[in-house]
Every structure is written in C-alpha cells, then in structure tokens.
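User: I'm new to structure prediction. If I give you an amino acid sequence, what do you actually give back? Let's try with this one:
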Amino acid sequence: QLSLRIGSPVQAVTTTELRIDATGGLIVPGTPERVILRGQTLAQATQTLTRTARKYLRDATVDVQLTELR
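Assistant: Good question. You get back a string of structure tokens that encode the predicted 3D arrangement of the chain. For your 70 residues, that looks like this:
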C-alpha cells in the first residue's frame, strides 16, 4: 500500500492511500492511466507516477510513501 500526494500550481495537494493490485499496477488518481510499478524501487515508482501525473497536471509534484508491505 502507498500514500500518494499529488499537487500542482493549478490543483491543491491531495493525499490518497492506494493499494497496488496483484499485477503490480494501480490507477493514478486524477488521471485515466494505469501504471505498473512491480519491480520498481520507491524512487523509480515516484518518477513513474510523476511522469504520469504531469501528462494531466502542469508541473505536478508527487510524493510517494510506502505505508504497508505485503
């Protein structure tokens, strides 16, 4: 499980608790995209989620924290 904080100059910061599914993926809040994070470090997952968020939110900032291990 992850705690995901996303914000941008045009959107207030939101924090969402997300559970990664059995295939290692999740839907990025505020976007229609599903990303696969399986096999990625926390830093790599943060980069992946930031790239995805920035497709939909200008200058998005993303902070990811691991809240629960499987």
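You can read the tokens as a compact description of the fold. Here is one thing that stands out. The chain has one helix and five strands.
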